[in-house]
From TrEMBL:
Name of the gene: argF
EC number assigned by the record: 2.1.3.3
Positions contributing to L-ornithine binding: N152, D216, S220, M221
Subcellular location per the Swiss-Prot or TrEMBL entry: Cytoplasm
Positions with a binding annotation for carbamoyl phosphate: S46, T47, R48, T49, Q73, R97, H124, P125, T126, Q127, C256, L257, R284
Protein name: Ornithine carbamoyltransferase
PROSITE patterns for the chain: CARBAMOYLTRANSFERASE
Keywords of this entry: Cytoplasm, Transferase
Residues annotated as signal peptide: none
UniProt record similarity statement: Belongs to the aspartate/ornithine carbamoyltransferase superfamily. OTCase family.
InterPro entries documented for this protein: Asp/Orn_carbamoyltranf_P-bd, Asp/Orn_carbamoylTrfase, Asp/Orn_carbamoylTrfase_sf, Asp_carbamoyltransf_Asp/Orn-bd, Orn/put_carbamltrans, OTCase_ArgI
UniProt key word Cytoplasm: yes
Reactions the enzyme catalyzes: carbamoyl phosphate + L-ornithine = L-citrulline + phosphate + H(+)
Amino acid sequence: MRHFLSLKDYTKDEILELIKGAVNIKKEPRKLLVDKRLAMIFEKNSTRTRMAFELAITELGGKALFLSANDLQLSRGEPIKDTARVIGSMVDFVMLRVNKHETLLEFAKYSKAPVINALSDLYHPTQVLGDLLTIQEYKKEGKIAFVGDTNNMCNSWLIAASILGYELSVAYPENYKIAPEILDIVKENAKKSGAKIEFYNDKTKAIKGKDVVITDTWVSMGQESEKEKKLKDFKDFMIDKQAMSFANQGAILLHCLPAYRGYEVSEEIFEEHSEVIFNEAVNRLYVVKSLLCFLSSIKC
């Protein structure tokens, strides 16, 4: 049994297989998981994640069960391992969107069903799968910039790029750092894949010569108390027309949404790239379908 907690647990070939499966299931929808059951546990609210997972299992012929934190005895102090042993014995998959990555690790340790990370404070791997599918569709693979906070999206992209052998430049303020454990993984992966990973405190240096520019909200859910500080720290990191002018001609912009125009991205640039961004959002559906099939050892 395999879990899907981070891309670091998957090989280059497996990641490419997941993208290939998403391409296939997008072209030829099929009911490959008839009567399979997916439990969806949300500690954090969601639009795209819930839509993608619920539609994915439903269109594959299965059933979804939505559980908010308030629906579970976890909110009254039941140990995670007890909840995992019950839910993991009654369904075929468990998807969690959680505040702390440790919750996922504990749940996965005791669950009899595959556990999927739909977002934690450390990683957001299903979003990066959707990004990879979008990049492939727009034929922009290879040279990528990530501009923004050193958050779960940044970590997941560092892991993905280092495994796949991509050229990735990351830009963030001087007083922000990539976690040492993430850097260790990335360096080790890059030695094997030949990936070129660079870090800057200047967005234009990171964006120069790239085919894909990725950004994300500066104030993640649960960090509202840090908003004033974050806006000050990141004031020079907005993706606007001038910033995009440093990218290669025809470069695309990705954003996992929700987007806060006037902060991490300008209104003008967001709307200019809105078709790509909303295709990126919809592609979450297809990579989730592919992932569910993969975890069931079924080829899409």
